[in-house]
Amino acid sequence: MPPSLTRRQCLGAAAAALAPRAFAQATPGARGDGRLIVVFLRGAVDGLSLLVPYTDRDYARLRPSIALPAPDGTDQAALRLDGTFALHPALSNLLPLWQQGVLAAVPAAGSPDPTRSHFDAQYQWETARPGKTSDAPGWLNTLAALGGAPNAVHAVGVGEANPRILAGRESVKLVARGQAASRAGVLDNPRTRAALLAVYGGDDAVSQAFRQGAGSRLQTAEELQREMQAADNGAAPPALLAQDARNLGTLMRQERALRIGFLSAGGWDTHANQGAATGSLANNLRNLAAALVQLRSDFNQPGDVIVVASEFGRTAAENGTRGTDHGHGNAMWLIGQRIAGGRWHGDWSGLAPGNLHEARDVPVHHDFRAVLAQVLRPGFGLTDSQLATVLPGVNWDRRLDGLLRRG
């Protein structure tokens, strides 16, 4: 018979049982052939407009000019998802995905680091190292290094010249747009040049812009520095996101070894004149919805997952210029056949003053790395040590265990 436990030992055991563990499942799932697409919204999208808490009495109080009307069937009102959240009307194209059960959300996710710097927050998100700004590879590059046949390229980024999330020792394919491609020198790589010509060989406006930009290598250091310091960090506006999504689909259909894709869009730093059902944010969201519908049509196999995220959220209350300022927690979207969609997952504590981070922001109840871990573990069959390598410091969040369908 084992010796009796002291009260202190009992409390310690109980705390250990309730605390987040590194990994809840002892063995990974079988390695699948699904693909992961990450869509990163640079500049901090307003999560309270993506996923509208229309039944929260503090929502309209905090946003007298930009709050969306509760669902009532009109074009200006939010679109009901359930008894807690609604969808921005500009995202109406996503409503069928929710109804089909392939779109889900985590409403209070993000980085545990409290920085409100776009540059730092984006870097930390892309390296999966909250609070650290030392040189580190991007987590998608680290993931690509674990994927399949040696000497094969497993990841591709379309749009940006050098996204940090794909930076590292592993070879990746970067299909940059226009002058960005010239700045990065990627046109000097014959393999990448061939991919660029295949994607941007059409008569559409984006293809013409690329071919024109690729012929010029003129840019001053001052111009480049201004781009690096901007919240968009080199990402194109949302108006080009659907075209980038089509290009990504073309590339990844041509090369099945490409299991990881990355897209980004800027233009989400809505400090002024954000708008409600109409306005600048609504226009951007409409473009985002078109891109996500395009991605879903191209990446619809059982193991495919699309993740949509931003570096942090925005303030719960509008500011004096009818916009929102830098916040903390945000909504993450996940799309795929394996996603337990048609519902939101995790904790949501509402917008009451006592529940806000620093009395102003949506809190982070779920580390973004824990959300990603739910997708990566079964989708790529990662062991515990591999998952910890891709997402350093990750703790398994059992509150999210229903995010993916089992079996």
UniProtKB/TrEMBL annotation:
<dbReference type="InterPro" id="IPR010869">
    <property type="entry name" value="DUF1501"/>
</dbReference>
<feature type="signal peptide">
    <location>
        <begin position="1"/>
        <end position="24"/>
    </location>
</feature>
<protein>
    <submittedName>
        <fullName>DUF1501 domain-containing protein</fullName>
    </submittedName>
</protein>
<dbReference type="Pfam" id="PF07394">
    <property type="entry name" value="DUF1501"/>
</dbReference>
<keyword id="KW-0732">Signal</keyword>
<dbReference type="InterPro" id="IPR006311">
    <property type="entry name" value="TAT_signal"/>
</dbReference>
